[in-house]
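Why do we care about 3D structure at all? Because function follows from shape, and shape follows, mostly, from sequence. That is the central idea of this module. The next example makes it concrete: a single protein chain, its amino acid sequence, and then its structure expressed as tokens.
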Amino acid sequence: MEQGVKLEYSISIKDDQIHSQDLPTGVKIDQTTIIFESSEPISMNLNIEIEKQDVEVRYILNPGVSVELIETRSGGHGHHLKRQIQVKENAHLAMLTLDESDSSIKVSDEVEIDRFANVESAYAELSLSDVTGKYAYHLIGEEASAKIKMAALSSEQYKKSYEVSLLHSAKVTYGEMNNYGVVKDQGHLFFDGIGHIEKGYSQSATHQTSRIMVFDKECVAKANPYLFIDEYDVKASHAAGVGRMDEEHLFYLQSRGMTKNDAMRLITYGYLIPVVDVIDNETVKQAFNETLEKRMGD
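And the structure:
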């Protein structure tokens, strides 16, 4: 993606319509569908305010389009946000989703990736709320690829669960997911990673890693990997683990003059920050760090 000025845009969703004052050239709205059709690379920071309980949004990337999207969401107590994303032939999407909603939410993504198209997607979940997330990536065209990163922090008594799936329905497709989480206080965090290569779609590869670091004894955390492989000529792997924070790392940082909370925050930052590397934006990294600092508490 070519680097350029990243402009910020805001939209609100109400009355089954997307409302926006302006959008960059090459982007248009049709009711609740955002269509990316420019022949030039598109880079935008999109702030979404949700003003109704159940919302469905559709993104369409036309063939050959290249889009870099930072999406920040707010509002909608108890809302259910559904995104349908179509990435057509030879298109490229780099997407970072930041959820700042401090209320119970349910979110789901259904992503279709056509031949020779690729998606790099990241989810930064630092909200103070219960969250249920379901993210399904469907590789429907030959040589389609998807790389997904998830970073989640669950604290206090919040319960967060995420299901990330890669469904391979074409030959020579590639899918990779990396889910990382941190749990503190009495938080709950669950990861389900699913990789499925259907019969007949040879030379495909699906890989997944899910790891959760636990700070306190009262935490509940689970990382569940699932592989469903119906073809022989493929590559597949999974890794999953849940473990306590390394006390030696904590002791070392405290011996260098850090408070315990500062040391915990630094360890958490290093554990989760790779998710925002999907998009090279220092402002986003700074915002991530500031939000993490607030969420870690004293």
